[in-house]
Amino acid sequence: MTESRDPPYPELKKTHTMAHVGRPWTDFKPPAAAPVWAAIEGLARYYVLVAALELDFFDTLQATGPKTVDVIAKHLDVSEPHLQALLDSLVALELLEQFQDVYDLNDAARRYLTSDGAATMADLIPVAPGPHENWTRLADTIRNGTPATPIEDDPAAFYVPLVEGTFTTIWRAASRADFKIRYSALDAPKVLDLGAGGAPWSIAVLQACPEATSIVNDLAGVIDVAKRRTAEFDVVDRCEFREGNFHTIDLEDDHFDIVVLGHICRTEGPEGARNLIERSYASLKPEGRLILADYFVDFERKFNPHAVLMGMTMMTSTVNGFPISSEQVTDWMRAAGFEALRLIEPIGFQFCYVATKPAAS
Ligand SMILES: C[S@@+](CC[C@H](N)C(=O)[O-])C[C@H]1O[C@@H](n2cnc3c(N)ncnc32)[C@H](O)[C@@H]1O
Predict the structure, then answer these.
(1) 323 CB under 6 A from ligand 1?
(2) Domain total in the chain
(3) Is 319 found in the same domain as 206?
(4) Together in a domain, 73 and 50
(5) Domain range for residue 107?
(6) Is residue 129 part of a domain?
(7) Are residues 44 and 81 in the same domain?
(8) pLDDT at residue 26 above 90?
(9) Can you spell out the DSSP letters for 252-299?
């Protein structure tokens, strides 16, 4: 046996120590394979959840109450043994409760996976990773430095379902941000919301400030989502919709109290993100504030795996997308002239930098 080989029974080594049972075979303890299995199971975990949503499982179980698999299979009109495997997997993922043979929603499923859950992510889950086929071609993307089918080829096709899916989460974050930055204390703030999606930030500010107005920007096709959502929240009359590319649309100088760059910088590349920050600075009034929401990786790019993987998701499906770091963003904001930088987390996993344009001297 060469030295680099495992001993015949490496798993024995974990407990078979001198202290317990005498002299071990060898001092070498192989590392556990758990991180490898976790990666392999990642695909299964995701598609189990996507299938359960596609089958309308969570809403159905909410309507029926706790049930055994045969009853649920009849409701969904699906194969009982196959459903059993799916439900047991959901239990393994801690997204479903099981008592003997009865399945019931747990609190996480009720909150995040039913379509009327208080923090529903049901519409977000299928679209959040971007086009699924781009993940199967990731090695090619890394070889070529660009994805085969970037979402920029047809932005509305990708962004309309995405911004519908993210709306509830971002609107909750935007509404909660008021506890940290008190935009509701402003008299009649003027808001500029670039790449607004369904306009969750504009809606939150306009709800909190009856005299507020907002310029809502997005691309043709996507901006219709903002028009519909602002109408649903009864703030559409205080919005002006400015369709077009946020790098080139006309913007007023020294005009706005709040500029929002909500989850748009990490798809733009360093040059594009910088340009958006500089445009925001120019369009803010003195003492106006920039809100820049994103997923920020840390200095060493290893302490926030969620942000690292979000950056990876951007790279997988966009031309310029990249993981965006706190260091980069704060450098760009300071270079543009911003001061009093703060990082807030209005709800879990949602981070925003808030930065102020200095008062006129
Ligand atoms: C991840 S979504 C964020 C939506 C919203 N700001 C939020 O925080 O929920 C990115 C948005 O930017 C828009 N967008 C992307 N490129 C754009 C461009 N060049 N000009 C204007 N909007 C753009 C997309 O259509 C999409 O609505």
Answers:
(1) no
(2) 3
(3) yes
(4) yes
(5) 34-115
(6) no
(7) yes
(8) no
(9) -SS-EEEEEEES-GGGSHHHHHHHHHHHHHHHEEEEEEEEEEE-EE-T
Q: What tens digit of pLDDT does each residue of 34-63 get?
A: 999 999 999 999 999 999 999 999 999 999
Report the distance separating Cα 45 and Cα 152, nearest Å: 28
Q: Of ligand 1's atoms, which has the minimum distance to the CA of residue 261?
A: 6
Domain annotation covers residue 322: yes
Per-residue pLDDT tens over the stretch 103-151 = 999 999 999 999 999 999 999 999 999 999 999 999 999 999 999 899 9
Which of 127, 151, 153, 159 maximizes ligand 1 atoms within 8 Å of its Cβ, making it the mutation to test the pocket?
159
Give the position, in ligand 1's atom list, of the atom nearest the Cα of 156. 25
Burial class, 319, CB count within 10 angstroms (exposed 0-12 / middle 13-18 / buried 19+) = middle
The amino acid at 226 = A
Q: CATH number of the domain at 53, please.
A: 1.10.10.10
The two three-digit tokens of residue 312, written as one number: 């990876």
**38 residue type, one letter:** A
CATH of the domain at 263: 3.40.50.150
